[in-house]
């Protein structure tokens, strides 16, 4: 099973690893990598450098006047690349993130996102609801936004950004619009389909919405809206988002999210380094986030809501934009900046869901 390596883990690596890093990085790069890092990590390097290199590094660390996050990130990236070449780290995943919020927004809105197959059941008899091909889509989007606002759920604005993620579900046959609330309620109890042996399997894997008036399954969309709608990907429920991300990683024999037992956090023991201690409770997160939308959770299970540590880096999903968009959509807004930056593992950030 692959483990995740974050910068702070350098404290625990052997001296040889530090020396391999120092051999392959310039002292200037090392200085950027160690800028604003703790003394334990710095000392580990200091103890493994030649006298000349040590003095040069200390000089450079004192010289750094204007902090440059891009240079520091580039230095960390190179450092991880060096560690990744060492045989004992061949099967390790390394902390990574988007360079900046703008970089991430560019990814969300760029014209040519990789094409993805439909998640879950698809086929000729299951049309995909496509915003850009829907007549009167502008009005329907406004209606969706109004319904989401009334429900207090379904529209996610990225922190410090004009970009919103919005569900868009219109029956391709009769034109009926389904709000986020209706989607969440449906996905909690989908219309039973005999191809699934257990109802729980269908809840996780069947991403179709059902219009009972038309007796028609269809695939709803998730819209990226800037000043105007920019792109669309497939809408997934919270459980499906986790499930398809887990499946994606499982193909590489990597266990993430709820596939990794170590990620389960008991409600009473939950805390995240990203939140002040006094507010670090699951309940507060639930109250404050779209993930709180518990209509997806059967009443009897609400008490079992667990935090699940988010050990996925968005960058690892770059070729799967729908999974990126849906993961962000279900992340508590306060934790989204960490997720974009790739600091979610170091900060013990969580996503939520009932997983039994
Ligand atoms: Zn219909």
Question: Helix content range of the residues, please?
Answer: 25-40%
Number of domain modules = 3
Mean pLDDT: 87
Beta content comes to 5-15%
Number of helices: 13
| Low-confidence spans | 278-284, 286-304
Given helix and strand content, the structural type is: alpha+beta
Number of strands: 12
- Spell out which ligands are present: zinc ion
Which outline best applies? elongated
Distance between the termini: 22 Å
* Computed CA radius of gyration, to the nearest angstrom: 23 Å
Give the SSE string: EHHHHHEHHEEEHHEEEEHEHEHHE
- Oligomer, anyone? single chain
Q: Can you summarize the main beta sheet?
A: 5 strands, antiparallel
Features:
356 residues, Annexin V, domain 1, three-stranded antiparallel sheet, 13 helices, binds zinc ion
